[in-house]
Write a structure and sequence with these properties.
The structure is a single chain. By secondary structure, the protein is of the alpha/beta class. It folds into two domains: 181 residues, Rossmann fold (3-Layer(aba) Sandwich), CATH 3.40.50.2000; 184 residues, Rossmann fold (3-Layer(aba) Sandwich). Helix content is 41%, strand content 16%. The strands form two sheets. The chain has a seven-stranded parallel β-sheet with strand order 3-2-1-4-5-6-7, with helices on both faces. Helix 9 links the parallel strand 8 and strand 9. Helix 12 crosses helix 15. The longest helix is centred in the first third of the chain and has 17 residues. The chain is globular and about 65 Å long.
Amino acid sequence: MHAKRVLVVGVAKHYFNRKLYQLMRNSHHDVQFDVFNTGEPILDPSEYAFYNKVFQPQKNKFADYFGFVKGIRGIIYRSKLQSEFERCCNLQDYDYIHLQSIPKWFSEIISTISIPVITTVWGSDFYRKKKYENQRIKNILKSSTSITVATASIKNDVLKFCSDLTDVRVIKFGLEVFDEIDKLLPNLNLNSKGEVLNITIGYNSHPAQQHLMVIEQIAIVKNKIHIPIKIILPFTYGPEDEIYISNLKTALEKYELDYEFLFEFMTASEVASQCLRSDIMIQLQPTDAFSGSMQEYMYAGNLVVTGKWLNYSELKDNNVSFQEIEHIDDLGDFLVKAIAQGFDINEIRKSNRKPLYQLSSWGNNINKWYTIYHD
């Protein structure tokens, strides 16, 4: 029996892809993975040896040149990726194509592909779609042999959007950080907690994290919180917008708030350390699917504050502890009350550890990924 050959289309360096295919390579030797990398080039291939081959599309300089013309850059970008895909990849070599996150540029070529196509909906690729992208996304979903999503609620939303799909499965990416938190806990200095209240805002640099609105809410009530506050902003991935960062720094200094930006890539162990030093994590995006980063802060024992408008029914159904507010304007008053009443990080961690591990550990999910390549 020959090994299954899978061509992955997506960001080769992304944490989820990197860990998924590393674990698959280590645990299942009858599947091999090549990747058509739509992200930043891999400079050191030895770090990504779990990919059998990496196809790196060439950039189109004209896309940057015409970037100021609305729509032109997108057309050039899509056309270039399509031509590079056809140039790089001999589809006769593969048993499956796996689209990791919905690549809108793939819509025009998916109907010409004869081998099975698996599409994994990540969340923001679906929920933040523009109206003019709807038909492209439907083309991809309808032409896919099977589709994976992280939760039942995302599955329901995908089926509402495209009702004639026949194979939509709930399969989660695992969270390696859980295991790293467990490794660090025995040596954690609990006595250091309480000197400064570390508040983490969001988990990436995207403006959808609403960093500025959260900072303004904290500034309104900071004099009512009788403990030093430090704001932590993880910007290790997401858009690199120097103007946006400058505006945030201006606000933080205006309100005289101590702060720290995290810009450098972090290993799973470093992410675990960040989660453990944080006391409160605030996640108030307008839309979100099933945030892995938020779960990592929950697992570490943070008081996690999110919005009632976000559908985290699966977490609630599994008795995971977190707090919700009705509107972002309620955040300041909520923080004052929560901090005054006190919250026990150890108790939060204790109550959340088992249900989160069952839901989102790699150990409980890796074999589900394996099955989609063996139907």
